[in-house]
Amino acid sequence: MSNFTLSTLSTLCLVTDSDLKRQQEASLTLTREEQACFEDTKAVLDTVHFSPRAATLRLIFDYAAKKPEQR
């Protein structure tokens, strides 16, 4: 490997402290966005109510009545 290749690769892999700080700030911003999205989703899901159809409940109770007890 020549010195030219080594110096080029080492220059390409150089990461500065300011690069790391920008990366951390971007990560925090994304976390805030994710938290906001999570709160919105949670609020919407709290308004959803599930009520099974009568036919579904009948099938569940019929199945439970036919199944032998397990001890």
Order of helices and strands: HHH
What kind of oligomer do you see? Answer: single chain
> What is the helical fraction, as a range of percent?
over 70%
Termini gap: 73 Å
List the uncertain runs.
none
Number of helices: 3
Into which percentage range does the β-strand content fall? under 5%
* Molecular shape: elongated
Q: Main sheet, how many strands, which sense, barrel?
A: none
Report on the structure:
- This is DUF1778 domain-containing protein.
- It comes from Chitinophaga qingshengii.
- It is a single chain.
- The protein has 71 residues and is mainly alpha-helical.
- The protein has one domain.
- The chain has helices spanning 3-12, 17-46, 54-66.
- The N and C termini lie far apart (73 Å).
Secondary-structure topology with pairs:
Layout: H1 3-12, H2 17-46, H3 54-66
Q: Which tags fit this structure?
A:
DUF1778 domain-containing protein; about 70 residues; mainly alpha; 3 helices
Short description:
The chain is mainly α and 71 residues long.
